[in-house]
């Protein structure tokens, strides 16, 4: 049947069911994606705020914006710090060595019961003293930085390895990076 002149055929205003389904699915996925990104950003911000940063080793290398060149050595300590600091020891001690090209890392674990000469024995013993390496951590008193520094000094005197940074994690999974 021919159309009359001057009349227009009315377009179908209803979209097909599959188009509506795809549009609804896309809207739901977009809302879920934005929510996930928001939660991830909040979580990362809280995680970054939970890590304290100090110049623990006193070598002035706490500036993270400086150009990094290898090789690098880091001291990593796991501690059982308690309210009674004198009973705190380092349960795990590791040396992380990053090669000159900064593309390979090697981890060496130091046995916590390794007997060594500790140059600074604090109030525990007369200095220098022969004791377990994890006793070097307890010498720092109530100062975490002094404790880690004493472990670093003890390891440096025994291995010749100088440290570019240190990290410590205690029993409550609070991390400190220096």
Descriptive report:
By secondary structure, the chain is of the alpha/beta class. The protein contains three helices and eight strands; from the N terminus they run αββββββααββ. It has helices at 17-50, 135-138, 144-159, and strands at 52-53, 72-79, 90-98, 105-110, 115-118, 129-132, 165-169, 175-177. The strands form two sheets. A six-stranded mixed β-sheet has the order 1-8-7-2-3-4. A hairpin with a 5-residue loop joins strand 7 (165-169) and strand 8.
Task: Outline the fold blueprint.
Blueprint: H1 17-50, E1 52-53, E2 72-79, E3 90-98, E4 105-110, E5 115-118, E6 129-132, H2 135-138, H3 144-159, E7 165-169, E8 175-177
Parallel strand pairs: 1-8, 2-7
Antiparallel strand pairs: 2-3, 3-4, 5-6, 7-8
